[in-house]
Amino acid sequence: MRITFILCFCLLVGFNSYAQQLPRIKILATGGTIAGKGASADRSAYTSGEVPVQDLIAAVPGIEKLATITGEQISNVGSQDMSVDIWMKLNKRINEIFKNNEADGVVITHGTDTQEETAYFLSLTLRYDKPVIITGSMRPSTGISADGPKNIFDAVSVAASKQAAHSGVLLVFNENILTGRDAVKTSTTHLNAFTAPNNGPIGQVYDGKVFLYEKETRKSNKETPFDITGLTSLPRVDVVELYADAPATGIEASIAAGAKGIVTGGLGNGNLNKANVTAVEDAIKKGIIVARASRVPTGRVTLLDETDDAKLGTIVADDLNPQKARVLLMLGLTKTSDSKQLQQYFFEY
Ligand code: ASP
Q1: Which pLDDT score, from 0 to 100, does residue 220 have?
Q2: pLDDT digit string (tens) for 153-199?
Q3: 30, 33, 264, 307: which one is catalytic?
Q4: Identical fold between 23-223 and 237-348
Q5: Residue bearing the bigger pLDDT, 175 or 5
Q6: Which site among 19, 21, 41, 287 is 20 to 30 Å from 231 CA-CA?
Q7: Separation of CA 30 and ligand 1 centre (Å)
Q8: Pocket around ligand 1: residues whose beta carbon is below 6 Å from it?
Q9: How far does the centroid of ligand 1 lie from the alpha carbon of residue 193, in Å?
């Protein structure tokens, strides 16, 4: 009896100290296909954001060997319905988690549609040098060979790795590690849905092993000036995409709606056709900041190429796509409406 008691006690102490050695990873679930459910094993008519966080965790075999996992539901939406409100909630909760030392790293599960925007928003606004990893899946949890459990396993592997601590927010998908700034969804259906069109992934992860072979090159986390503590909304910034013979109705509607900034998804090197040059001149006269991005997936938009930014008063989004440029411009406008300073943000962050 006494020996059994001592044995149990030792096993318990041993188990506890083993568990204590594991990093503590908090999974914050926001919804998406990774939490999607459907009646059949293919993707027809499934609904995003149905499965709760505890079930997502329970579906990942071996996750308990990587880390001590806890989960929280932040929202449960398809990321086509991601909002600035949810971004703010996420930012606040992650700051709290690290401030109160509730976890050593955070993994966010998220729909893929707007994952690149959330990743960039968090990389610009979080204040801690701790791993924050975002992931999702292309197949719903009820689909054949659902990729969600594997992506969560890989994301937790990266979050639990000391290497990821100073790398800013990372996006882990299909065994690739990408920076939150550069990751872009480039396939509507393939499992390898994310790439960084200009510079590629910065690492790989498989079987719990993490290989980071590059660093984030732009300033992020503690180095950015964007502190959203105390804010409840962000200035309105719209995106207007251009095409052959595009009328100026998009820009005109944004002006009428009271936008503080407009990002153009321009042609080639961010060019605007004549109708939209006139509309942009009008927007700038009204004090709206206009940033030229491009609808072309690679390369950058450069100052004073075919478009005379000095004369027109526009700034350029550098290598950010329009939806990411919108995130930076919204945050930039919380600090200043000086176009020179805003332009500098685009070259630094
Ligand atoms: N519409 C889904 C979402 O973004 C797609 C996905 O997660 O893959 O939530």
Answers
A1: 62
A2: 999 999 999 888 778 899 999 999 999 999 999 999 999 999 999 99
A3: 33
A4: yes
A5: 175
A6: 287
A7: 11
A8: 32-33, 48, 78-80, 111-113, 136, 138
A9: 11
| CB-based contact 251:279 (threshold 8 Å) | yes
- Six-digit token string for 290: 């206009």
Domain boundaries, the chain: 23-223, 237-348
Query: Can 336 be counted among the known catalytic residues?
Result: no
Domain 237-348 has CATH 3.40.50.40: yes
- Residue of 27, 223, 231 lying closest to 127 (CA atoms): 223
- Of ligand 1's atoms, which has the minimum distance to the CA of residue 34? 7
Confidence check: pLDDT of 152 > 60: yes
Residue 171 has which token pair? 């996006």
Residue in the structure block whose two tokens are 């105390």: 230
Give the Cα separation of 295 and 202 in Å (integer): 24
pLDDT per residue over 248-282, tens digit each? Answer: 999 999 999 999 999 999 999 999 999 999 999 99
Cα separation of 64 and 274, whole Å?
A: 59
Nearest atom in ligand 1 to the alpha carbon of residue 138 is 8
Q: Which residue lies with its CA nearest to atom 3 of ligand 1?
A: 111
Contacts of 203 (CB under 8 A, 6+ apart): 158, 176, 177, 210, 211, 212, 213, 214
How much distance in Å is there from the Cα of 29 to the middle of ligand 1?
A: 13
For residue 192, what are the CA distances in angstroms to 136, 159, 203, 206, 267? 11, 20, 14, 14, 27
Span from the CA of 35 to the centroid of ligand 1 (angstroms): 9
Sign of the dihedral defined by the CA atoms of residues 180, 134, 138, 329, in that order: negative
Question: Quick check: 5 pLDDT over 50?
Answer: no
Mean pLDDT of the chain: 93
Q: State pLDDT tens for residues 190-224.
A: 999 999 999 999 999 999 999 998 877 776 666 78
The CATH superfamily assigned to 23-223 is L-asparaginase, N-terminal domain (3.40.50.1170)
